[in-house]
Structure of 3-methylmercaptopropionyl-CoA dehydrogenase:
Amino acid sequence: MSHYTAPLRDMKFALYDVIGAEALYARLGLENATRDLLDAVMDEAAKFAGQVLAPLNAIGDSEGCRFDPATGTVATPPGFREAYAQFVDGGWTGITGPEAFGGQGLPESFGAALKEMLDAANLSWSNYPLLSHGAVEALKRHGQPWQQDVFLKAIVEGRWTGTMCLTEPHCGSDLGLLKTKAEPREDGTYAVTGTKIFITGGEHDFTDNIVHLVLARLPDAPAGTKGISLFIVPKLKTARDGTVGERNAVRCGSIEHKMGIHGSVTCVMNFDGAEGYLIGEPNKGLAAMFAMMNSARLAVGLQGLALMDRAWQGALAYSRERLQMRSASGPKFPEKPADPLIVHPDIRRMLLTCKSLAEGGRMLALHAATLLDVIEHAQDEQERKDADVLLGFLTPIVKGMLTEWGNECAYHALQCFGGHGYIREHGMEQLARDARITTIYEGTTGIQALDLLGRKTLQLQGAGLQQFLRMISEFCSAQAQDPAMIEFVLPLAEAARAWGELTMEIGRRAVADPEEVGAAAVDYLAYSGYVALAFWWAKAVAAVNRDGQPDDLRTAKRETARFYFARILPRTQMHAAAIRTGAGNLLALDAALFDS
Amino acid sequence: MSHYTAPLRDMKFALYDVIGAEALYARLGLENATRDLLDAVMDEAAKFAGQVLAPLNAIGDSEGCRFDPATGTVATPPGFREAYAQFVDGGWTGITGPEAFGGQGLPESFGAALKEMLDAANLSWSNYPLLSHGAVEALKRHGQPWQQDVFLKAIVEGRWTGTMCLTEPHCGSDLGLLKTKAEPREDGTYAVTGTKIFITGGEHDFTDNIVHLVLARLPDAPAGTKGISLFIVPKLKTARDGTVGERNAVRCGSIEHKMGIHGSVTCVMNFDGAEGYLIGEPNKGLAAMFAMMNSARLAVGLQGLALMDRAWQGALAYSRERLQMRSASGPKFPEKPADPLIVHPDIRRMLLTCKSLAEGGRMLALHAATLLDVIEHAQDEQERKDADVLLGFLTPIVKGMLTEWGNECAYHALQCFGGHGYIREHGMEQLARDARITTIYEGTTGIQALDLLGRKTLQLQGAGLQQFLRMISEFCSAQAQDPAMIEFVLPLAEAARAWGELTMEIGRRAVADPEEVGAAAVDYLAYSGYVALAFWWAKAVAAVNRDGQPDDLRTAKRETARFYFARILPRTQMHAAAIRTGAGNLLALDAALFDS
């Protein structure tokens, strides 16, 4: 069984020392968000994560959720329900929720750090609040006042939870194919009919009511993605004054048996003329859903980060304890029968890969989350617009790469344990299984990559990329005179230049052949992720070199940054080389000949 | 539930058309091994794999093995025992076994193709014969005549199975630490006492007797790896005439709960003064164990190959069926509501990665296995010695890289399925879980890498590498005039040159600092694997371009080779770059500061 200790020191370093969140919150007028308060909340969250959620992680995996076909109900694993009650009592469900609806209105970027802790402690459990957070976003932006009073408030207060019902058996990434229909009734409600699959938290025993946000088609809706509307379909029919009535005609039909996240229930939901309430405008449901996509995708990126950190903590502890072989340069602990694993360069390669990706990913993700705060609170319209563009650009990088790195780090961490990593009791294999879903749900890595390269870069003439390159360029200029920074600034500036050039090159190819976008996308996503992380690692070194930072942190950050630049950043070479070979080698082989 | 169809066409293409096994078998005097017979046997094996073993794969995973603590017995999953009985009846246990002991003496390289089928159909089940094969190797080379008559014959005939008992709780890779002791008795037997863990097939219900090969220390043995001897410890005491007696004092104490291969039992074995028989010379047990290492490690490499192929088959079928989105260059199947996944370049990238690694890995592994035949049957001593050196060099590449690629392909294949890949019923997630052990057992990837770079390359002045480079160079010279080959020959020749140069460079660094070996090892292993595969892909194109090969195969091989050279071979750049940064960035950070 593995333990979890929230990396408070590194979270604070990233948020305050590198990203400068204190000054930002002050500038945005977030008066609640004083450093004292935030530190106290963070400490409490760390306790909740480490003491309440982490001990339930293994049992959630071994017991899983149990479905009763007779009643359509789901029992979550032992302890999950009680932990949720404690979470509600502590006021955690509304920590970043709007104050007008019972929330505490703390910054989203701060909430992101808390999310990382919950996810690392117990990914399955944390999926329930995650989905609620998505519903909060949709209701906050698109809900009618009564819908906000009734549903938003109940979710912020944790009395009810939310879901997102998008996928159907025949359509996952391609929502244009969806068939669920919504027929208007005379009373202004809608009768929603159809089957949704892969519904996280579709049924559970945490709360009485569950608020499903459902994509469906109106009778006269145009085909494809332009004919999709969004509906609230509560488990219990809910009047406009908030009175909860009888059971609605929505029911969990079965639950999936999955590779991991066994404690997070994944439901088939059958809607059989269920009472629903239109949210937002007719046929604009996808736009409403997309509005909460940034936050939901960032949230899954944080899951990747969380798993990186949890895996890394386990691998580090084991590598320090486990004695095996002698160091090649002579015994390091001659009094012991062998040296600990951590003396061996290849173990260090795996550990430092995890450390550099996790700590780098933390800066990347927390910075992206600050853009949510800017979008919501900045006075200046242009600043809000810029933040929206930059966030749109960074979101697929955070979602796509942090989840891929989550899988990679879980892989390395398990490998550090040798045969013991493959055994359940050490908890490492659970992390690897849990991580595997994160590159799939909320849009696969391939979908993130198309979003990044197609929609967010080529369609916008590189507006987001230009902003990020400007950040790099300004940083490099500011640091150019510092001899301690030159080893990072030079390769970073070169990487940024090459990133821009590669993007232009793909753009030119894509004009000639639209297939070039899909052919380059995942490699471009990875390329972007590695350059972005190089920027944050350079920023970290600059931050830690400032007066007042402790020596151990300074050394650790500098050496990890050196490792990153030396051994991880060169991955960009491979991705650039692959991109430059173009689409031809992917498309030449006829589909019928793949098994020739 | 996923199906499995043995890739007979590609196996035969690799073995006969690319590697030229027919001529080799004739030259080695393997008169049994006629093409007609081999083809017939291969077809039968494919049926057994597809019809008997494959249908048991999912149930093996869901039911697993059951341990009864009261009796110390293990029940294998439903159907496993019956399948083994059928396997024995069919004479499969002795297919490559020595004829003098009831085997059929077919070539090991041919046996490797059969192994791939069994592994792909049902990895868990196939672990039982795999371990027996290891025991056969050890007994064949080091057993006394009576031990061969009794134990070897019974294993070849499938009446008993074998195990390898190396690992102890405190020592995995570092066998020098092992504590199990063997005390001589007056009757010439030994009393073996100790605890062994991770013993695959340590207890089961396939056969009455189980032949444990156990590493242990004699009372006067020197410390470390030079004081280890090898013993036969049967589950049932066995007299020199083969008479089976009472239960020996060896007992399964518990079984592990693992991430995957649930049908393959992993036991803790307690030896409590169990009767054992010394095999080989005192204190030379590790050498005896290493003698069967090549074959056992190749066998695990074949597991990686098998999983690549099974995963690829599943992903290809799904990608052809599942309709999702339109091709970026316009609908390819306008009559359908969407195009199948396989039109999308990124899906093709994943599929072609699997195809190129699996088919390339097959040539690499089968060629390596032919060296086992050369070592055993060649008349010329120098030829045998050369083959031994080359096999020693290739074995860690096959074991290390085919298992890493097995994991990679299982990852891609699951990803092609989207959310459905994460659900148990499709069978893809089982492949990913099963694959995860293969980079660990029989020596982790890190251990393979040290073996390749340290023992097999630097210590032997690159003797194995030189042989392989000579093969490449001769091939390139022979193909240099063929315009159809130039696109492969030029980059292959360059990759070979760079491989040699990189090796020399590491050698020079290692003289100055022994830590450079460990710092470079895994990247060097990967680098070697990618260049070796480039050679085999070029060979495949040359072979398929010859007269008489069908057009579909010619096209498929050429385009897959192009994909490989364009998009996979560039990974060498990243590995070379990482190696060239040296050990410093791995060793600089004090172990105490890793979590600073």
About this structure: The longest helix of chain B spans residues 381-416.
